Amino acid sequence: MSETHVTDEATDAFMDHRELLFGLVYNMLGSVTDTEDVLQETWLSWSGRGADGITNPRAYLVRIAVNHALRRRTTITRRRETYVGPWLPEPLVGDDAGADDPALRTESVSLAMLVVLESLTPLERAVFVLNEVFGYPHTEIADIIDRSPAAVRQLAHRARAHVHARRPLYRAHPRVRREATERFVRAALGGNIGALLEILAPDVTVWTDGGGNRKPAGLRPVHGRDKAARLITSFGARRDPRGLDLRYRRVNGDDAVVLFEGDAPYAVMVMDLTAEGDQVNGVYIVTNPDKLTHVIRNENDGEEA
Q1: What's the pLDDT score for residue 176?
Q2: Averages of pLDDT over each 10 residues, the chain, 305 residues
Q3: Inter-CA distances, 128 with 64, 124, 290, 294, Å
Q4: What is Dmax (Cα atoms) for the chain?
Q5: Beta strand residue intervals within the chain, DSSP E
Q6: What's the per-residue H, E or C state across 135-155?
Q7: Which residues form a coiled coil (predicted)?
């Protein structure tokens, strides 16, 4: 078999599974940039080995990608130690009509869930993502991460208990969630303190991730309705002076808003709602420009505020 044919076969196999690999790695790392780097490392490992003799390319590629992602967690952890202010995942921004980019079509958990997953150990997170998000059985996960099935079951149990204690199992209907999101945005950017206090849950928390590059962004999350309302209204007050344009988009599968300054993204704002969908109990605001490089504006953008 010629070298060109082997290379073409390896390339085809990799591209056939790239969307799956992106979803797995992104949910393990919470960073588009790091995910792309891991996929490049996976490709180099895969192309160097070649597809010849591999009976199950999908399983082989998943194993390579997951283990590269586990190694990448060490780099991310070191980076987090010097990060300024709260750290939030890099948002995957799509639109209501769906996106052409495969990265935005991939299976991904909500931004709020990714924040919870950050509190797991790397192995617990890998097992949770493989099992709960992508449906891999424990026996296959054991082969992927080179652990015994018993060890994988224990990791899965710990991860599931941790996540379910922090995330409701029930979510309101998407229409209810969209209406609550729009009510929140109108109140926040319209400066209606009364309406904002009404829709914020008493124990609401606001995370603002500016990475030390943009304000307002506190050095820690803000807890409680009154403090949250003050921070949110101060953020909304910046819209007119900066000429910001707000658009409804889908972020990690949830209704959200994106603020643009001209054609450049200024902020992504995601609301986490109560199980009933009638109040906001979490607000995630990403303004760090390094985390918005993949957000683009297009002619079919969501409706204007």
Answers
A1: 84
A2: 61 92 96 95 88 83 97 92 90 64 62 93 97 95 97 97 82 81 86 90 93 68 92 68 77 88 89 86 92 78 51
A3: 18, 6, 28, 26
A4: 72
A5: 93-94, 200-209, 222-223, 244-251, 254-261, 264-273, 280-286
A6: CCCHHHHHHHHCCCHHHHHHH
A7: none
CB within 8 A of 281, min separation 6: which ones? 201, 203, 204, 205, 272, 273, 274
R_g of the chain, CA atoms, integer Å: 21
**Sign, CA torsion 283/204/213/25:** negative
Q: Give the integer Cα–Cα distance in Å for 56 and 63.
A: 11
Both tokens assigned to 84: 């300024």
Cα–Cα distance for residue pair 83/170, rounded to 1 Å: 33
Tokens of 58: 């999908």
| The pair of three-digit structure tokens given for residue 189, joined into one six-digit string | 């950017």
pTM of the model: 0.88
CB atoms within 10 A of CB 53: 6
